[in-house]
């Protein structure tokens, strides 16, 4: 169903052979993925101890941990690509808000459990399908990170899909809350598959998947889950973008205030 | 009737004395069942409430590695809560009722969690001291007379000792770091030392349930015995870290081969038990809020499961 990568693995340039321009683009892209997992993991970890039922508290902590693990691998790779001696923690904690490149969706507040589920479902749908293809990337490091993450993302998608169905086809209240969450969050879903100039360049070079090619499988999954949930798929919604280019909502600043607190208060120390 | 009852009770005590574990379907005295439900549910509640003071630092952890470790640790506590609620359920208690008792204030949880976590070093102290004290309380429970509880505790203790090492490692990193990190470690120790000594409960003379629990082998050491063990274990560790335990009376006693130490402030202990600690209202409030705000989620899950079951039945028909 998906278009195969344009560059076969055997033709891959080794890390050192990337042109400075591609290397810079790859650095920006890996950072974008790392920021995305970091910020969503941060949001999910805010639920820890406050979930609607102990089993789901555990599930959300699990997903947050998976995302944090993926984040660390990505930041480590980004640091290597940059080659300036920055560490994973320098990249995660010591940048300005405009330098974070996560899409707007993942910085949105947890809201009620329905909002958390909708945010997670929209992200997981993209994340899983993107990783399936990224796993075939000619960039060996990205492919290896994707190989590990795709197994976890498959579980995340199963979890959030099941909850979409339960909430949509549960009680009148759960349905009303799900509808409200969709009305708020659907408009952030388009950014996930809208490539930035950097992504377009890497897509053209065959290093990352073409998002247009991911759409059929993503749309089919969404249609299936919404069908089971008895919820119509929103149509004709204006899509907000900007996060992947550093134009964020007001929420990110508060996330960073907490996230960066220790590193900013005690610069240069080891923990 | 009475004769049969006495025989059962004698047989029960004989099994206990022979260290044969009691299983859910075995006959047991009502008081034994009640004591266990109280103790196991309190322990489960402590795991649940105990997620909050550490959860407080997840979003502010100073490095990605520390954040990961802390989040896994808090998640382990949720897991411990699950095993323990399940163990209590084998005695006929329902999770809903146990939670209702926690929320109404009828059931207690460990008072240590009513103290605030104010700095990153508190993540070190909670692991090193609080989990250290919990382990001393819990290791004997791996041999407690009630089988499901003992088996749950084997798993809990394995994870707790891992947590304790992590806590110590946080403290060690701080103590080997910059002066402000070492000061942070000392300040946290000053706040946590006495409250952890209180975790072993009132002095033996003031602990009315100890004798019966020892006799039923639910408990294997007295509060004062465990408190002494804790001090003997922790004072040398604090010295190794280069930290000072905030008790001028701490001194090695050659004759007793143990450390002498000062008197716990029992007035503070009873005050916190009665609800007057810094965080009692916040901790319980957070649990009640999570439960109440989660009601519609639990209802939706049940309603959906019912719809599915009905549809499956219709299809089968």
What does the model show?
The complex is a heterodimer of chains A (271) and B (317). Chain A has 271 residues and is an all-alpha fold. Chain A has a single domain, classed as Ferritin, CATH 1.20.1260.10. Helix content of chain A is 63%, strand content 0%. Chain A has eleven helices and no strands. Chain A starts with 19 loop residues before the first helix and ends in a 6-residue tail after the last helix. Chain B is an all-alpha fold and 317 residues long. Chain B has one domain: Ferritin, core subunit, four-helix bundle (Ferritin). Chain B is built from twelve helices and two strands, in the order H-H-H-H-H-H-H-H-H-E-E-H-H-H. Chain B has a two-stranded antiparallel ribbon with strand order 1-2. In chain B, helix 2 crosses helix 11, helix 3 packs antiparallel against helix 6 and helix 5 runs parallel beside helix 7. The longest helix of chain B has 29 residues. Chain B is globular, with a radius of gyration of 22 Å. Chains A and B meet through helix 2, helix 3, helix 6, helix 7 and helix 10 of A and helix 2, helix 3, helix 11 and helix 12 of B. Chain B: InterPro entries: Aromatic_CoA_ox/epox, Ferritin-like, Ferritin-like_SF, PaaA, PaaA_PaaC. Chain B: Pfam families: PaaA_PaaC. Chain B: GO terms for molecular function: phenylacetyl-CoA 1,2-epoxidase activity. Chain B: It comes from Hymenobacter persicinus. Chain B: This is 1,2-phenylacetyl-CoA epoxidase subunit A.
Unreliable stretches covering 5 or more consecutive residues of chain B: none
| Residues in β-strands, percent of chain A | under 5%
Domains of chain B (count) = 1
Number of E-state strands of chain B: 2
In the CATH scheme, what's the topology name of chain B?
A: Ferritin
Assign the CATH class of chain A.
Mainly Alpha
In terms of structural class, how would the helical and strand content of chain A be classed?
Answer: mainly alpha
Organism (chain B): Hymenobacter persicinus
GO molecular function, one term (chain B): phenylacetyl-CoA 1,2-epoxidase activity
Pfam family, one (chain B): PaaA_PaaC
InterPro entries (chain B): Aromatic_CoA_ox/epox, Ferritin-like, Ferritin-like_SF, PaaA, PaaA_PaaC
């Amino acid at each position: 169903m998906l278009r195969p990568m344009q560059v076969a693995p055997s033709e891959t340039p080794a890390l050192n052979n990337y042109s400075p321009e591609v290397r810079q683009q790859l650095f920006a892209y890996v950072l974008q993925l790392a920021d995305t997992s970091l910020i969503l993991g941060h949001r999910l970890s805010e639920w820890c101890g406050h979930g609607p039922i102990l089993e789901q508290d555990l599930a959300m902590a699990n997903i947050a941990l998976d995302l944090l693990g993926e984040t660390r691998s990505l930041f480590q790779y980004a640091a290597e690509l940059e080659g300036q001696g920055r560490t994973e923690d320098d990249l995660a904690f010591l940048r300005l808000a405009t330098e974070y490149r996560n899409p707007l969706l993942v910085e949105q507040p947890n809201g009620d459990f329905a909002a958390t589920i909708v945010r997670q479902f929209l992200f997981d749908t993209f994340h899983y399908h993107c990783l399936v293809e990224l796993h075939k990337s000619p960039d060996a490091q990205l492919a290896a990170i994707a190989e590990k993450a795709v197994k976890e993302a498959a579980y995340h998608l199963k979890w959030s899909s099941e909850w979409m169905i339960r909430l949509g086809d549960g009680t009148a209240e759960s349905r009303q809350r799900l509808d409200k969450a969709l009305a708020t969050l659907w408009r952030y879903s388009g950014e996930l598959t809208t490539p930035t100039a950097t992504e377009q360049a890497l897509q053209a070079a065959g290093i990352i998947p073409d998002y247009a090619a991911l759409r059929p499988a993503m749309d089919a999954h969404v249609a299936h889950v919404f069908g089971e949930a008895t919820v119509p798929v929103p149509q004709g919604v204006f899509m907000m973008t900007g996060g992947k280019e550093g134009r964020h909502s007001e929420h990110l600043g508060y996330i960073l205030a907490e996230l960066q607190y220790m590193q900013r208060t005690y610069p240069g120390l080891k923990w | 009737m009475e004769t049969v009852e006495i025989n059962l009770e004698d047989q029960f005590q004989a099994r206990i004395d022979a260290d044969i574990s009691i299983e859910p379907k075995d006959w047991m005295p009502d008081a034994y069942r009640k004591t266990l439900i109280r103790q196991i549910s309190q322990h489960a509640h402590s795991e649940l409430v105990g997620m909050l003071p550490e959860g407080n630092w997840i979003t502010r952890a100073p490095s990605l590695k520390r954040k990961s470790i802390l989040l896994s640790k808090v998640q382990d506590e949720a897991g411990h809560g699950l095993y323990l609620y399940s163990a209590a359920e084998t005695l006929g208690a329902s999770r809903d009722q146990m939670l209702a008792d926690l929320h109404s204030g009828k059931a207690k949880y460990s008072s240590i969690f009513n103290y605030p976590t104010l700095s990153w070093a508190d993540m070190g102290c909670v692991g090193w001291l609080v989990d250290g004290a919990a382990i001393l309380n819990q290791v004997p429970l791996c041999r407690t007379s009630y089988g499901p509880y003992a088996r749950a505790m084997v798993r809990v203790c394995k994870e707790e000792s891992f947590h304790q090492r992590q806590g110590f490692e946080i403290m060690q990193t701080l103590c080997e770091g910059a002066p402000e990190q070492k000061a942070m470690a000392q300040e946290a120790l000053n706040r946590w030392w006495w409250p952890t000594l209180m975790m072993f409960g009132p002095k033996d003379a003031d602990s009315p349930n100890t004798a019966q629990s020892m006799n039923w082998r639910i408990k294997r050491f007295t509060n004062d015995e465990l408190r002494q063990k804790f001090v003997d274990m922790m004072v040398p560790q604090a010295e190794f870290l280069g930290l000072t335990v905030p008790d001028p009376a701490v001194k090695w006693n050659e004759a007793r081969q143990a450390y002498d130490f000062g008197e716990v402030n029992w007035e503070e202990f009873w005050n916190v038990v009665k609800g007057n600690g810094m965080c009692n209202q916040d901790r319980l409030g957070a649990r009640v809020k999570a439960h109440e705000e989660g009601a519609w989620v639990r209802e939706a899950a049940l309603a959906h499961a019912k719809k599915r079951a009905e549809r499956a039945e219709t299809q089968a028909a």
